[in-house]
Amino acid sequence: MIDPSGAAEGTSHRFLWAAASDIGRLREENQDAFVAEPEAGLFLVIDGMGGHRGGAIAARTIAQDLPPVVELGLDRLKARDSRSIRRLLRKAILDQSRHVKREGDSESGYVGMGATLVLVLFAGGRIYAANVGDSRIYRLRNGQLEQFSEDHSLVCELIDAGQITPDEAVNHSAQGVVTQYMGMPEAVEPHVRSAALKPGDRFLLCTDGLTDLVSDEAIAETLAANPEPQAVCRTLVEAANRAGGTDNVTVIALVWTGDGRM
């Protein structure tokens, strides 16, 4: 069941949204985190990595520190054009990753802590999407599901190189190995993109606790069948737990209504 303390929903003049986070069936601690700042049009989902206490600390650090940096940066922009906002998000994520690395190095026992990240920002009638790692962002438009994020994973690289097929990737030994994450020793290279919004666009931010267990087809069906974001979150979390609940699962569902502009 969804923990009520980890769920939230709301409305604005432009979108409906809801969020939920669940520990799953096998883990002893929920190391996921999410941020919802509807007035700023900013939403994040973070998946702490490593299966130890450091993952939770990394996720909490990003949840606390990254949103105010993004919001302050937006306030200081001389021109809110698409290129400037993408550059701002890229720099904020790069700096935050370095901060997580420093925090891990300074805490005994937490060296190597990290997290994956997905972020969306609504601004000027556009959506800005950024990710690091294998947590995902999806868009459903006119019944068609599109992955808006880019998996930073070893299996994705193997598929792109033609060494394995998508079907072979499902049970591949490299499944779950990420090539980019917040807090990594090297400079992180976030995937950042933007697109114009259309009324009725539906978005989903989620950790791999969902996508490892629930197919894209099932995700598309759930987004299409449930007009209320809260129902989307509840249905997807329950589906992940029915499929085994092997990991924490966190989701944010958004519906762009098209009323007004940020």
Protein architecture, described:
There is one protein chain. This protein has 262 residues and is α+β, with helices and mostly antiparallel strands. Helix 1 runs antiparallel to helix 2 (82-106) and helix 6 packs antiparallel against helix 7. Strands 1-2-11-10-7-8 form a six-stranded antiparallel sheet. It is built from seven helices and eleven strands. The longest helix has 25 residues, at 82-106. The protein has a single domain (4-256), classed as Phosphatase 2c, domain 1. A hairpin with a 3-residue loop joins strand 1 (8-11) and strand 2.
Secondary structure blueprint with pairings:
Layout: E1 8-11, E2 15-22, E3 32-37, E4 42-49, H1 53-76, H2 82-106, E5 114-123, E6 126-132, E7 136-141, E8 144-147, H3 154-160, H4 166-169, E9 191-196, E10 202-206, H5 208-211, H6 216-225, H7 229-242, E11 249-256
Antiparallel strand pairs: 1-2, 2-11, 3-4, 4-5, 5-6, 6-9, 7-8, 7-10, 10-11
Helix pairs in contact: 1-2, 6-7
Question: How many domains is the backbone divided into?
Answer: 1
CATH class: Alpha Beta
CATH topology: Phosphatase 2c, domain 1
Say how many strands there are.
Answer: 11
Low-confidence stretches: 1-7
Topology pattern, helix = H, strand = E: EEEEHHEEEEHHEEHHHE
Helix content: 25-40%
Instruction: Examine the secondary-structure arrangement and name the CATH architecture.
Output: 4-Layer Sandwich
Largest sheet: 6 strands, antiparallel
Distance between the termini: 34 Å
Q: Quickly count the helices.
A: 7
Q: Nearest-angstrom radius of gyration? A: 17 Å
| Shape label | globular
The oligomeric state of the chains shown is single chain
Based on secondary structure, the structural category is alpha+beta
What is the overall pLDDT average?
88
CATH superfamily: PPM-type phosphatase domain
Order of strands, widest sheet:
1-2-11-10-7-8
